[in-house]
Write a structure and sequence with these properties.
By secondary structure, the protein is mostly beta strands. The chain has one domain: TolB, C-terminal domain (Neuraminidase, 6 Propeller), CATH 2.120.10.30. About 10% of the residues lie in helices and about 40% in strands. The longest helix is centred in the first third of the chain and has 26 residues. About 35% of the residues are buried.
């Protein structure tokens, strides 16, 4: 009798378990799920109040390249690194120069005298204004992935995402040293670079700013590599930066305000020098879905040039 009761109890438990599983499956079907108040709404994050958009697209240029890589602006000329070439254009979009480079370029900057520094995968080259090679640096090793260069006075700064350091050269090509962004014994982390996005720029006041992408931070260094100041904003919302590594690219307006380009939620924004959001330049809906964060440059009038890697064009945004 006891054995019969035990069997009945087991059968009852099995029936209850089957009923619970069936109800759970039914409740999780599309249309029957209860609202998850903690779920991140990507549509909400990508929607931008139109009153915050302070720029309009005024023109674009076809650069006739299969693999565009980088853009900068200097003295009324647009410089493009693409495929295995360096190209320059005037502000009307007419090509002025196209020169074959010894390696595929990754990034570039132009000195005040018109000389050009170009970063390749693991070395840099220095060229005159006619794109004639003046010197080529030694390789920085197999781990090196150069993602940005900046030249000022007699110094060249090189962002290396592979080694997570900033290298320093003098203008003659002599390698000087490197710094890791470590600020002292209590902060030994340094630059956090989870992917191939690691930018740096010199602002109009001559200050060196380095993006620490894993921290969503902007760090101001002396030319010797000592941290002076920083600001950061980790947030999935418009005023901040999210994902593993943002912003992807950095530029500066003539007044020192920051221009940023983001990946994942692709968009371009401007921020005050103290970090607060100023304006949206281009919202996510203006770029290809799941597209690549555009590289950016700024002219002396405050127009923003976006190198759209997906459409393979240069897009120009002017303040409204």
């Amino acid at each position: 009798m006891k054995k019969t009761g035990l069997i009945l109890l087991i059968i009852l438990l099995v029936v209850v378990i089957i009923i619970v599983i069936a109800l759970d499956l039914r409740s999780t079907r599309v249309g029957n799920r209860s609202e998850n108040k903690y779920e991140l709404n990507m549509d909400e994050l990508m929607t931008v109040d139109t009153t915050l958009i302070g720029y309009k697209e005024i023109r674009n240029y076809n650069i006739e390249a299969d693999s565009p890589h980088a853009i900068t602006f200097h003295q009324q000329k647009i410089y493009i690194a693409a495929d295995g070439f360096l190209q320059t254009f005037n502000i009307q979009g007419n090509q002025l120069l196209k020169v074959t480079l010894p390696y595929e370029p990754a990034c570039l900057d132009v000195a005040e005298d018109g000389n050009i520094v170009i970063g390749f995968r693991n070395r840099i080259g220095f060229f005159n204004e006619d794109a004639e090679l003046l010197w080529m640096g030694d390789t920085l090793g197999y781990r090196s992935i150069i993602t940005a260069v900046a030249v000022k006075n007699q110094l060249i700064f090189v962002a290396d995402a592979g080694n997570r350091v900033v290298h320093r050269y003098d203008i003659s090509g002599k390698y000087l040293d490197q710094f890791e962004g470590k600020t002292g014994e209590q902060d030994s982390v340094g630059f956090i670079v989870p992917s191939g996005y690691f930018d740096l720029k010199i602002n109009p006041e001559g200050e060196l700013w380095v993006v620490n992408p894993g921290r969503h931070a902007f760090e101001n260094y002396t030319y010797e590599g000592e941290l002076r100041s920083f600001w950061e904003n980790s947030s999935p919302y418009l005023e901040g930066f999210t994902g593993c590594c943002n912003p992807a690219h950095l530029a500066f307006l003539p007044d020192g305000s920051f221009v940023t380009s983001e990946k994942l939620i692709v968009r371009i924004k401007t921020h005050k020098p103290s970090g607060e959001l100023l304006s949206v330049v281009a919202s996510t809906e203006q770029f290809q879905e799941n597209g690549i964060a555009p590289d950016i440059a700024v002219d002396t009038s405050g127009n923003i040039y976006a190198l759209d890697f997906d459409r393979k064009i240069v897009r120009v945004f002017a303040p409204k």
